[in-house]
Specification:
It is globular and about 70 Å long. Helices cover 39% and strands 14% of the residues. It has helices at 12-25, 37-44, 48-60, 111-123, 135-147, 161-172, 187-195, 212-220, 242-253, 294-297, 310-321, 329-340, 346-366, 386-395, 423-436, and strands spanning 64-66, 72-74, 95-96, 155-158, 178-182, 199-203, 205-206, 209-210, 223-229, 259-263, 286-292, 304-308, 378-382, 398-399, 401-402, 413-417. The protein is α/β, with parallel strands linked by helices. The strands form five sheets. The chain has a seven-stranded mixed β-sheet, sandwiched between helices. A three-stranded antiparallel β-sheet has the order 13-16-15, covered by helices on one side. It has a two-stranded antiparallel sheet with strand order 1-2.
Length: 446
């Protein structure tokens, strides 16, 4: 069953370590079937409970997966393999539209805000025992949540959106639980879920967000959590509309025990209104809504604020205290200063990205190519042959992100980031895309 590789060990930890060594060395390949518990126990001369405990540890670490009587296998896609590695090597002279970064020209200068934070530090440095969240950032974040109709709740701060989502999921879920995720969706989240030992259940979406029937199917299949991108969905640019939000709330109302995680990373760069799914009276008992500063103020700030129900936020804060302790007050004061001074005009930033998205989508439509990008900084183009399209575009001088980075079960596509795309480049890149793909007319992504 295992070829020449022999699993060794007398204790559960030793057996688990032996399997992990085999996976790490490549001697146990993805998809490799492991011996049944009793068979391996007999071979090693140990109690079957010892092998069962080892397999349980491996499942919790995301190394193997178990499918009942079909046995346990090495994960087809090891949790240590990041989707960000699925990309193209960009030769010199090729225009790179693959990275998903904001336009540096639209990011504010941090000089004054950092100086103000440093001045506060000089007057009174933050020491052990200080509150994890600064009063200024809490007040500004809560005011922004209130302005967008986000239900009341305590506020916490984390080191970016993914950190917040991870902490929220682990506050309620256990290894083996299922999580409903958008497909196509954020590659880092699609990596995170199995890395936590959780099972992703893909949910198809269109320009208005996750499809209600798809969410309902995932919840009926046992999803314990649902992660939704409210605006500027990566990679499709979808944004949850008012009507879609109502439909999704009705679906969620039938599953009040599900954890709802809303990612509003587009805050500060979109002009479409927020339609939060969480409500003061439901539809679920546990929820969080996360806002990152990465797109509006710069990825290197590594800061996000979140709010949610008291139990979930308290669990997030408590676990955070046992790890990093807190997010640097220097960063918190910097972000508060940027918010207070209105260093970024969201309407102007949204207009700039919108003009580029609209121009590219329009140019592609003129050439018979369907594309999607309702909000944010990305345009998603369905293609029949992903590898061929990426290769032909690269040969034409344009690097785009392969859709495999973002997909689980949805059809192929490529993502183009419009950040920094100049007006005179719209026509040439549209010509290149049209030459690289056949027209695609589907309106839903999965």
């Amino acid at each position: 069953m295992l070829g020449e590789y022999r699993i060794e060990g007398r204790r559960a930890a030793e057996i688990a370590a032996s399997v992990e060594r085999g996976v790490g060395s490549g001697e146990l390949a993805p998809g490799q079937l492991l011996p049944p518990v009793r068979e391996l126990a007999a071979e090693l001369g140990v109690n079957p409970n010892t092998v069962a405990a080892a397999y349980r540890v491996l499942r919790e670490r995301g190394v193997i997966e178990t499918a009942g009587r079909r046995g346990s296998r090495v994960r087809p896609r090891p949790a240590s393999t990041p989707r960000e590695a699925i990309g193209v090597e960009v030769p010199e002279g090729v225009r790179d539209l693959s990275q998903g970064n904001p336009d540096p020209a639209l990011l504010p200068s941090l000089r004054a805000a950092l100086a103000a934070a440093a001045d506060r530090h000089e007057r009174g440095p933050t020491l052990y025992g200080a509150p994890a969240l600064t009063a200024d950032l809490e007040r500004l974040a809560r005011a922004a949540f209130d302005a967008d109709g986000v239900p009341p709740g305590p506020v916490a701060v984390t080191s970016g959106s993914l950190d917040a989502i991870e902490r929220a999921l682990m506050a309620h879920l256990r290894p083996g639980d299922a999580v409903a995720v958008e497909d196509p969706g954020w590659g880092s989240l699609l990596d995170l879920v199995p890395a936590l030992g959780l099972r992703p259940l893909p949910v198809a979406l269109d320009d208005e967000g996750p499809l209600p029937e798809e969410v309902g199917r995932a919840l009926r299949q046992g999803a314990r959590a649902l992660v939704v991108t409210d605006r500027a969905q990566n990679p499709t640019g979808a944004a949850v509309s008012a009507g879609r939000a109502r439909d999704l709330r009705r679906v969620l109302a039938g599953h009040p025990g599900v954890l709802l995680v809303e990612d509003d990373h587009g805050h500060g760069i979109v002009d479409l209104p927020l339609h939060p799914l969480a409500g003061a009276a439901g539809p679920v008992d546990h929820w969080v809504l996360v806002r990152s500063t990465a797109k509006a103020y710069g990825p290197d700030l590594r800061l996000a604020v979140l709010t949610g129900d008291t139990v979930t936020v308290d669990r997030v804060r408590g676990r955070q205290r046992l790890g990093p302790g807190w997010v640097s007050h220097l960063l918190q004061h910097t972000v508060a200063e940027l918010w207070r001074s209105r260093a970024v005009d969201p309407a102007e930033v949204a207009r700039s990205y919108g003009l580029r998205r609209g121009a590219l989508i329009g140019a592609l439509a003129e050439r018979g190519v369907a594309a999607h990008g309702r909000s944010g900084m990305n345009v998603w183009v369905p293609v029949p042959d992903e590898t061929g399209a990426v290769t032909r575009l690269l040969n034409a001088g344009w690097a785009v992100a392969p859709g495999a980075r973002f997909r689980t079960a949805s059809p192929p596509g490529v993502r183009l980031t419009v950040s920094g795309l100049a007006a005179h480049e719209i026509g040439p890149v549209a010509d290149a895309v049209a030459a690289a793909v056949r027209p695609a007319r589907a309106r839903r992504y999965g």
